[in-house]
Amino acid sequence: MKLSAACVVAVDVGSVRTGSFAWAAVDMPGHTLTAHGDDPAGAAGALSAALTDGASAVLALEAPMSVPVPGDWKLLGKGRTGEGNRAWSASAGAGALATGLAQGAWLLAEVARALPGLAATTQVPRWRGAAPGGAPLLLVEAFVSGEGKPVPTALGPHAADAEAAARAVAARLAGEDGTDGTDMTCAPQRAFSLLAAQARWAGLAVAGDELALDVLVVRARPAG
């Protein structure tokens, strides 16, 4: 896992118009909250600034970002392994997925515009520093719900969710949460990576095989 300097920007996907969108940035390895906001432009700027300064960066979207595509049509819409009773295709998950697709694509397009030729990946071993020819931007999915919900801060519940997601992702990548790998997977079904699709649409350099690879999903655990 990655241990050198990096910036994790997590986005609590939601309506920009009604104020349900929030983001937070946490550094690695210190896990210090370095920035936060309620506008997509701020999140894109935080990612671009970190990458411009030479650090690695992570974008974590709190929405289903990979979905299983089974060979048997009768399994279409079935939840991913590890989701329990909160399937990606249920009303809450499906709504977040649709919103996250548009917001994630916009964010990544802004980063690509600021940094032409930037490479991104959804695979931790391909993240810069972990493998030759890797990418400096890692794209992951965060999941904050139930017992993992933080106590809302003075900044509001959406900002609290974004910070909790950023800290959970940073801890997972640093190997500090006692969990290795992902909390959810499309396997044994074939994965359709919405993160890889968004990144390619935005103009980032992404390996073609990542469209059909599972992404890292990090579920926020209860504090303490």
Structure, explained:
- The protein is 28% helix and 20% strand.
- The protein is built from four helices and nine strands, in the order E-E-E-H-E-E-H-E-E-H-E-H-E.
- The strands form two sheets. Strands 1, 2, 3, 4, 6, 7 and 9 form a seven-stranded mixed beta sheet that branches. A two-stranded antiparallel ribbon has the order 5-8.
- Helix 2 (91-114) packs parallel to helix 4 (194-202).
- The two termini are 23 Å apart.
- The model has no long low-confidence stretch (mean pLDDT 89).
Core attributes:
224 residues, alpha/beta, two-stranded antiparallel ribbon, 4 helices, 9 strands, 28% helix
What can be said about this structure in brief?
The protein is an alpha/beta fold.
> What is the total tally of β strands?
9
Computed over alpha carbons, the radius of gyration is: 16 Å
Helix content: 25-40%
Mean pLDDT across the residues is 89
Count the helices. How many? 4
Largest β-sheet summary: 7 strands, mixed
The portion of residues forming beta strands comes to 15-25%
| Strand-pairing-aware structural class | alpha/beta
How many angstroms separate the termini? 23 Å
Q: Which overall shape is indicated by the principal axes computed on the Cα atoms?
A: globular
Unreliable stretches (pLDDT < 50, length at least 5) are: none
Q: N-to-C SSE series?
A: EEEHEEHEEHEHE
